């Protein structure tokens, strides 16, 4: 029953993600920073709520993610979700693409206010965020590798410490989710509302697009 409830929870979260992407897409070019800021806040809160719900789940189900397609689990997931640095890489990609498209205007001093118009201060903060996030990812990857290699798996009586293993997995997955959320929050803090909206739309596009591809691929393999 727990996996069924977790699957329903995922589908509800994913439906909410689609709705928030639609709202952000419609509002991201509007000259209304307060409205954009509120939408960005709702997006982050949506992620935060799902992270809190995952913390209550059996870590075995969280790690195996039975609601995800094999493509998602095999090609995209790191500790039951996207690598936090994926968001930073996406930010750099979107910024570079925008910058190239509007370079003539920028040379004339015309500012766009989007991701192609990041200030030196913003770029320095994003670089710092990337370095810190990579370091934390590496630490979590090493810790999970130790669990999978059996370090500390046997208790003092020579028996497999199943509860201890599950506890360690839960701890690593919880901190991975916390890092994902913290990275998103920090990126949003660095950016202006319109820039943050643009990044979150791109992040939702990636999440939704990869899932749709995974489901389509799996369906084709089963035909």
Automatic annotation (TrEMBL):
PROSITE patterns: DOG1. InterPro entries: Seed_Dev/Stress_Resp_Reg, TGA_domain. It comes from the Eukaryota. Residues 3-220 form the DOG1 domain. GO terms for molecular function: sequence-specific DNA binding. GO terms for biological process: DNA-templated transcription. PANTHER family: DNA-BINDING PROTEIN-LIKE PROTEIN, DOG1 DOMAIN-CONTAINING PROTEIN. This is DOG1 domain-containing protein.
């Amino acid at each position: 029953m727990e996996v069924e409830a977790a699957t329903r929870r995922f589908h509800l979260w994913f439906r909410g993600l689609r709705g928030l992407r639609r709202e952000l897409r419609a509002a991201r070019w509007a000259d209304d920073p307060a409205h954009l800021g509120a939408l960005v806040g709702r997006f982050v809160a949506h992620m935060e709520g799902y992270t809190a719900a995952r913390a209550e789940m059996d870590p075995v189900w969280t790690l195996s993610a039975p609601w995800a397609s094999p493509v998602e689990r095999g090609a995209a997931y790191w500790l039951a979700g996207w690598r936090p640095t994926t968001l930073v890489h996406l930010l750099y990609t979107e910024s570079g693409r925008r910058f190239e498209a509007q370079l003539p205007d920028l040379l004339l001093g015309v500012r766009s206010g989007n991701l192609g118009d990041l200030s030196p201060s913003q770029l320095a903060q994003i670089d710092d965020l990337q370095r810190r996030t990579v370091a934390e990812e590496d630490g979590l990857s090493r810790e999970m590798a130790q669990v999978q290699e059996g370090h500390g798996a046997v208790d003092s009586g020579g028996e497999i410490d199943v509860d201890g293993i599950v506890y360690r997995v839960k701890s690593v997955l919880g901190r991975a989710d916390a890092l994902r959320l913290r990275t998103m929050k920090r990126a949003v803090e660095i950016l202006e509302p319109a820039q943050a909206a643009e990044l979150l739309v791109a992040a939702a596009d990636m999440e939704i697009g990869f899932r749709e591809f995974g489901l389509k691929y799996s369906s084709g393999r089963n035909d």
